[in-house]
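Could you help me review a protein record that somebody else here produced? What it holds is a sequence and that sequence's fold in token form. I have pasted the whole thing underneath without changing anything:
=====
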Amino acid sequence: MGLPVYLDNAASTPVDPRVAERMAEALRDPLLAGNPSSGNHAYGAAAQELIAQARNDVAALVNGDAGGIIWTSGATESDNLAILGGARYKAMHGKHIISSVTEHSAVLGSLQQLREEGFEVTLLHPDSDGRIDVSQVSGALTDGTVLVSLMHANNETGVIQDIAAVGALCRERDVLFHVDAAQSAGRLPLDVAGDHIDLLSLSAHKLYGPKGVGALWLNRQRISRLEPLMFGGGHEQGLRPGTPATHQIIGMGEAFRIAAAEMAADVARIGGLREQLWAAIQDIPGLVRNSAGADTLCSILSVSVPGVEGESLLFALRKLAVSSGSACNSDSDDASYVMRSLGHDDQLAQSTIRFSLGRFTTAADIGLAATEFRAAVDRLRLVAGG
């Protein structure tokens, strides 16, 4: 059997060949052998120039100032730097933070660390479709609230949160607003200015760029500094020591440049393929389309199958590369906390399949996925019925 059809783009996307070629050129270019921090000679200056261009390209996708881009290893590090760094810096003004139970584990883990440092954390519960209403945030705000952190689009269900409304509320109350946009960048319009975002986490490998590089955008007009997580140099405005990975940063910049140019066409095509997949499987008895009543990313279709054991279903779908939930929790036997938050019991949560489509998904891939999924469910239900 050949490689399975790749439908796990929410976990990681293939590197766009144009990005790979741009990175290869950078690795081959003898002028880029220098350390970007060594701007006193031509080698370092050339690297600096290309990194500056990448800052511009990443910032342009989110309508932000390029000077606010801090390079990181990915969205997980960006989340940690935003939440830990922001909360610790603002601790003199208050020690209360608001987030939700359906956030990425990088956010929840950072919040748990702050709890251990004496911060109070309020985790909001979404409705049955996975949405957090701005009134919930408003009701949870206190005089000691210093930070609100919400993801733009959920990594398991694709549910889109109204970050513009939450951002306006936070700005009105002078509370920092952090948004994890790892899934939404390049798939939804992002406007850090219009949406009143103060901290924005971004990842390259979720948008056809390389693994191991990401960015945190800071609103420099409202945040004079963050408490760093690492020490040892003045790189990235003193927030991220270490020699910048020139070729990876160039790759991220190219990926974001391409996304800005092609987002409208990508979204339309991928959204059409997702609905084509749903149309081909929706008549399976009992099949649940998760978050059906909410706006969701064009790229994610999450379904749950009653009466089918989850691990057996994944094994039966070995011709497809799909996920039962977040890739960051794939080694755990526990039912997805995101699915449980929607009201699913453990059985239904564990029998959830996330199809996540991308730029390189084809109509033929969707046809095969529908055929394989239907056959797997029929076979497992037949066995279960004995």
Observations:
- The chain has twelve helices and twelve strands.
- The two ends are 29 Å apart (CA to CA).
- The first strand starts at residue 5 and ends at 6.
